[in-house]
Write a structure and sequence with these properties.
The chain has 215 residues and is mainly beta. The protein is built from 1 helix and 12 strands, in the order E-E-E-E-E-E-E-H-E-E-E-E-E. Strands 1, 2, 3, 4, 5, 6, 7, 8, 9, 10, 11 and 12 form a 12-stranded mixed β-sheet that branches. Strand 8 and strand 9 form a beta hairpin.
Length: 215
């Protein structure tokens, strides 16, 4: 049987100099990479045509948003519970969907793909490997009323740097189908050596910095 899952993620990239406030969302501190063990259960492959990672970048007076696609991915399910999973993100698939000016759109995406940010020619993929999944005893809802059922911990690899992160997700398993989605969560990009405009690496930026948090 060909099991498939639909996945929806929300992450953000801070694209411009921010001076008013940082990104909003669940804070996910980057820790040391966790041991990756074997998982049990049936493997559900990601439906690459419907699974999507949404990103939003904010700056004073506005924001930009778009998507990134998965290259491949799977979740392991045992007795209707997710036990693990791994996702490979195609970093060359970054697109912006709000800018109608073709030249500006291309400039923005080119900057994200450049060595200033994700250096996609050298690091064409990122990876997220689940290391633990726990059911929330008291499911929580975000500001939009979306209920999250599980806490997920995993190793996120960007630019060959691997750190452990944790976030809440809504996961449902029924009739041989799995749907998983995350809320908006915030990570510190400097932990993955994304240094452009970071105050942690440059001390003379004054108000021309970009927040280290990705949200």
């Amino acid at each position: 049987m060909n099991h498939k899952i639909k996945l929806f993620f929300f992450v953000g990239f801070i694209l411009a100099a921010l001076v008013a406030c940082g990104p909003q969302g669940e804070k996910s501190a980057a820790g040391e990479a966790m041991t990756e063990g074997q998982t049990t259960g049936v493997a559900y492959n990601a439906d690459l045509t419907t699974s999507v990672i949404n990103w939003e970048g904010t700056k004073p007076g506005g924001s930009h948003y778009g998507t990134i696609r998965l290259k491949q991915g799977n979740l392991s399910v045992d007795d209707n519970e997710v036990t693990g999973g791994e996702f490979v993100i195609d970093m060359k698939s970054i697109v912006n969907i709000d800018l109608t000016d073709t030249a500006y759109n291309a400039k923005l995406i080119g900057h994200l793909m450049s060595p200033d940010f994700f250096a996609v020619d050298s690091f064409p993929t990122a990876r997220f490997k689940i290391t633990s999944v726990s059911k929330l005893q008291n499911p929580v809802k975000d500001a939009d009323g979306v209920g999250y059922t599980h806490a997920i911990t995993g190793n996120l690899t960007i630019k060959d740097v691997t750190k452990s992160i944790k976030f809440d997700a809504a996961i449902s398993v029924s009739d041989g189908k799995v749907v998983a989605s995350t809320g908006k969560f915030v990570i510190d990009r400097s932990a993955w050596n994304i240094k452009y405009g970071s105050r942690k690496f440059f001390d003379n930026l004054k108000d021309k910095f970009i927040y280290d948090e990705i949200g």
